[in-house]
Write a structure and sequence with these properties.
There is one protein chain. By secondary structure, the protein is mostly beta strands. It has one domain. Helices cover 0% and strands 35% of the residues. The chain has no helices and seven strands. Strands 1, 2, 3, 4, 5, 6 and 7 form a seven-stranded mixed sheet that branches. A hairpin with a 6-residue loop joins strand 3 and strand 4. It starts with 17 loop residues before the first strand and ends with a strand.
């Protein structure tokens, strides 16, 4: 008999609200969001990421995965509140022009624009 024992990661809460800032509004919805909360799940973000085009270093960022319903009201530099939303389907047409973004993507739903 073979037993496999593993550690399950704690599930990510989808009802906790976080604050973020859109720090890079690249073409084709290649957006970079900086997380402003220390209790955000650290495995979902790049603690340090350098934009290869501008050589600007960003801290605690991720690339926006849920581009289909991200509010057009949110512009670069805008802060907003959001929840992590891994159940969201991302089915919309997006151009494929390249803009550097972090390797980690997170699907979110914006709950309030500050």
């Amino acid at each position: 008999m073979v037993s496999i024992i593993g550690c399950d990661k704690e599930p990510i809460s989808q009802d906790k609200t976080f604050t973020g800032t859109l720090v890079k509004q690249g073409i084709c919805l290649n957006y970079v969001i900086q997380v402003n909360d220390s209790d955000f799940p650290q495995e979902l973000i790049e603690k340090s990421w350098i934009d290869e085009f501008s050589n600007i270093e960003y801290k605690n960022v991720f690339a926006l995965e849920s581009v289909c319903d991200f509010s057009e009201e949110i512009k670069e530099g805008s802060s907003f509140e959001f929840i992590i939303d891994n159940k969201k389907e991302n089915k919309c047409a997006v151009c494929l022009a390249y803009t550097p973004v972090p390797n980690k993507y997170v699907s979110i739903t914006v709950t309030n624009i500050n």
